Amino acid sequence: MKKVVLIGSGGSGKSTLARQLSDKLKINVYHLDVLFWKPNWVAIPKEEQRKVQNDLVKKEEWIIDGNYGGTMEIRLNAADTIIFLDFHRIICVYRAFKRMLRYRNKTRPDMGEGCKERFDLDFLMWIWKYPKTKRPGILKRLIRLSKDKEVIILRTPKEVQRFLEKL
User: Fold this and answer.
1) 117 with 37: CB under 8 angstroms?
2) Is residue 156 within 8 Å of 85, Cβ to Cβ?
3) What is the pLDDT of residues 47-61, one digit of tens each?
4) Quick one: which of 16, 48, 53, 157 could link to 44 by a disulfide (CB 3.0–4.6 Å)?
5) The pTM is what?
6) Which spans in the chain are helix H?
7) What ranges do the domains of the chain cover?
8) Cα-Cα-Cα-Cα dihedral of 73, 74, 76, 81, to 10°?
9) What is the mean pLDDT of residues 60-89?
């Protein structure tokens, strides 16, 4: 486990798990939200996102946290381990809402500098719709990739805890 991708719905705990894995495995973590957002929520162009990721995956070891479906193949193809946090949407919405309150008007540690947390109904709706709009395609990709890579699907916070304890 030297090249790890973490994917899942917003609020599933990708960034938290990435930090925990980084501490345990002594591998640098790269939060895509930090790399892809400029101050005041200005996204970097897709071509720059691709370049950043192509450079990252050339490193010997890494943990990359984030979805970004348009460039996900870069990470998935380069990874040796893919962890999908497949949590129920109620847990994810609750956690995202709690995070919005906790970091309101502040930049959280796994977000681009100058991107202050705010209440975002569109984001909460994206999370709510994730099981129907995003999850099926991800599961298909993971089935295909599981022949060559370690694919780990964690469905509950307890499964995440057991996974971390086994490392």
Assistant:
1) no
2) no
3) 999 999 999 999 999
4) 48
5) 0.95
6) 14-25, 32-36, 46-56, 72-78, 89-102, 121-133, 135-145, 157-166
7) 3-162
8) 180
9) 96
